[in-house]
Amino acid sequence: xxxxxxxxxxxxxxxxxxxxxxxxxxxxxxxxxxxxxxxxxxxxxxxxxxxxxxxxxxxxxxxxxxxxxxxxxxxxxxxxxxxxxxxxxxxxxxxxxxxxxxxxxxxxxxxxxxxxxxxxxxxxxxxxxxxxxxxxxxxxxxxxxxxxxxxxxxxxxxxx
Length: 160
Prior knowledge:
The protein is α+β, with helices and mostly antiparallel strands.
């Protein structure tokens, strides 16, 4: 199977936050942002695997600054690492106040997706071809996160 580069599946989405996305004080709900993070990550997963993909886990999700009604959110999602059927995708969220132009880092997340074939079973995906130093750094860090996740899933993985 021929590999694919990070650039081939990278995705940028943008959406303005509206009153239905927020609480009565005008702060956007974290769950709204989480859903959009999952959507952006899922697009990357499907573009890389060329199949349906399901969210297997959210390794980390951090909120860095609040989002308000009227803010424009930009979701920058890219592939960090691939396994045989799974892939880790990083998503960075920025919010922009369209009146002032101020841009803030809003959230960041690492998600794992599994490619699913027409049979409903996991299918093999193309390997990742990191091209840039940034791609290679992100790939190395993703492998370390994967090893850490696997250690915590193994019974007796805690040191005695």
